[in-house]
Amino acid sequence: MRDDKRMSKKGKVTVLVGAQWGDEGKGKLIDILTENVDYVARFQGGNNAGHTVVIEQDKYVLHLIPSGILHAGKICVIGNGVVIDPKALIEEIEFLKEKGIDVEHRLKISEKAHVIFPYHRKLDELREVKQKGRIGTTKKGIGPCYADKVSRVGIRVADLFDKEYFKTRLEANIAEKNVILKNLYASEGFSVEEIFNEYLKYAEYFRKYVCDTITLLNNAIREGKSVLCEGAQGTYLDVDYGTYPFVTSSNATAGGACIGAGVGPSRIDEVLGVVKAYTTRVGEGPFPTMFNDELMEKIREKGAEFGSTTGRARRCGWFDAVLVRNAVIINGIDKVIITKLDVLDELATIKVCVSYRYKGEIYTTIPGIPGFLEQCEPMYEELSGWQRDTSKIQQYNDLPVNARKYVSRLRELIDTEIMIVSVGKSRKQTLICNIK
Ligand code: IMP
């Protein structure tokens, strides 16, 4: 049965996800992989993400539009699982148009994607400032928008085109949000008319991009076109599998592609996971392998570890093989891509976390015990560094022997094929290795 189904399907579907806390360098990989696909689809998150792509002298930071847009002829989809801040999306479209990129014929926006409103941003910000136990969000309104979606009061892209329906839903939402804003946060409320008129203008702007992306993608797959589903954030920011509650509000894991792009599980051929050669995290939440201050500063500077969306300094630490091995399992990752190996070039020794000790016991999985990751002690293995510049190397086998030993050890620990090692931002600094 399954074989029959597979035979009738012609186009290859690949899902690419981050296997740490986001910022793994997915933007560069998506850009490279896009050369061989017809469609690229975002399936979750919103403009909390920031995918950076460097092409020759130009740097592009994309928050909502798949980085595939930088490749002529590729169709880019913002799937139903994404939350869209119209203002941010318009800015991105206009920026790309100014750069001479054809967005109009190639960007498709799901009619079922939920829309972010100013009250979402406001609530996100106030919760961060006024509530105890802040998450360290990007304050882009992501959490409150997804909360409305799940509470069944959200407003979707298609709703904006039905004035009456849109107004009724907006009125109900604003009535509720204003009570919370005024009474709980002593903040000003919002006016229905103002937002209604503003968003009707956005709807007109988006009209030509909006369609049934689910049918579009599934027809494309049937016709033999290949699709790359690009995840934003990373496995440990996933609302189910991440370090809850310090997570984002969507499913950043591979299963999220089925929900957020409308591509069924049996259609997915391959899952790729991206990891940094070390670990970073932005925002609050536990981070067992975090560096001491001195090393943190050194690696942060060398790796330019500052958020591409908020500019916040990222915390940095050793590679955590427990996290990545579990990410491989959760996502069903077939192949791993290691980025930023060059950032470790100067270190004399490099540590890798292989297990955690918690209350006298050794763990190689991450239990749901509250405070586990905050309190556990990472158990390290130490490897010798290579202390040579790797950023100009063009072939995997030309890497210093200790760098190759490091990659091989990571391969053993996470028990998955390593497909690519990246040693810099540009497309040229990409070493294909396929270590099985
Ligand atoms: P939110 O997604 O803005 O609600 O933020 C929730 C958590 O996810 C915070 O810790 C953010 O710093 C983190 N986060 C959200 N988007 C990204 C991203 O693209 N890269 C890294 N961290 C992110």
From TrEMBL:
Residues annotated for Mg(2+) binding in this entry: D23, G50
Chief localization: cytoplasm
Annotated residues for binding of substrate: S308, T309, T310, G311, R312, A313, R314
EC assignment: 6.3.4.4
Catalysed reactions listed for this entry: IMP + L-aspartate + GTP = N(6)-(1,2-dicarboxyethyl)-AMP + GDP + phosphate + 2 H(+)
Binding site residues for GTP: 22-28, 50-52, 314, 340-342, 422-424
Pfam families the record matches: Adenylsucc_synt
A GO cellular component annotation in the UniProt record: cytoplasm
UniProt keyword Hydrolase, yes or no: no
An annotated GO BP: 'de novo' AMP biosynthetic process
Cofactor binding, note field: Binds 1 Mg(2+) ion per subunit.
Enzyme class: ligase
Cofactor: Mg(2+)
Domain of life, per lineage: Bacteria
Positions contributing to IMP binding: D23, E24, G25, K26, N48, A49, G50, H51, T138, R152, Q233, T248, R312
SMART domains in alphabetical order: Adenylsucc_synt
Alphabetically ordered keywords of this record: Cytoplasm, GTP-binding, Ligase, Magnesium, Metal-binding, Nucleotide-binding, Purine biosynthesis
Pathway: Purine metabolism; AMP biosynthesis via de novo pathway; AMP from IMP: step 1/2
Catalytic site: D23 (proton acceptor), H51 (proton donor), K149
GO MF assignments: adenylosuccinate synthase activity; GTP binding; magnesium ion binding
Role description: Plays an important role in the de novo pathway of purine nucleotide biosynthesis. Catalyzes the first committed step in the biosynthesis of AMP from IMP.
Subunit structure: Homodimer.
Family membership noted in the UniProt record: Belongs to the adenylosuccinate synthetase family.
Protein name, per record: Adenylosuccinate synthetase
Organism: Candidatus Omnitrophus magneticus
Gene: purA
